[in-house]
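Quick one: structure for this chain?
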Amino acid sequence: KKKINYFEIDFQLTKDNRLICLHPNDNKDLSNKNIRELFFKDIKKILDLNDKCYDDLITKLLKNNPKMLIITDFKENNIEGLNFISQNFSKQLNQFVPQIYFAHEYVHVKKMGFNKIIFTLYKIPNLSNEEIIEQINDMDLYAVTMDPARLRKGLAKILKKKNIFTYV
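Got it. Here's what it folds into:
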């Protein structure tokens, strides 16, 4: 029986410094309490609010599932969010696979203690394959993610020769 061990989750930090699983929209100024009230009021009667995707639940989830890997996706404030994870999930840090969106983020994320890093290319669409290869030559990457257009331009074949796994 095979199990899925990889989960990509959209994260945000609340203004009161809590990690939540929430795709960004205009919630930057909301606190943990505000978000729980706004987004979960309709299901509050059915589910316990402590059972939502917040930092406390993520800790329990990772502790109970040691093979689980969470691929992070911070649409905004990536370095700040990953720094929060590195400081608050030190015992589970090896269960996080952070995505970086720009080459300059790599050094910061590596210094935070993350071992598996994914370079996600959708925020740098104008770079050529050669420019991307030049950027990643000094990186020890777990994988590279790209859109189908980049796949068609042959980047995945180049990365395969370098033994870098790709996701599209």
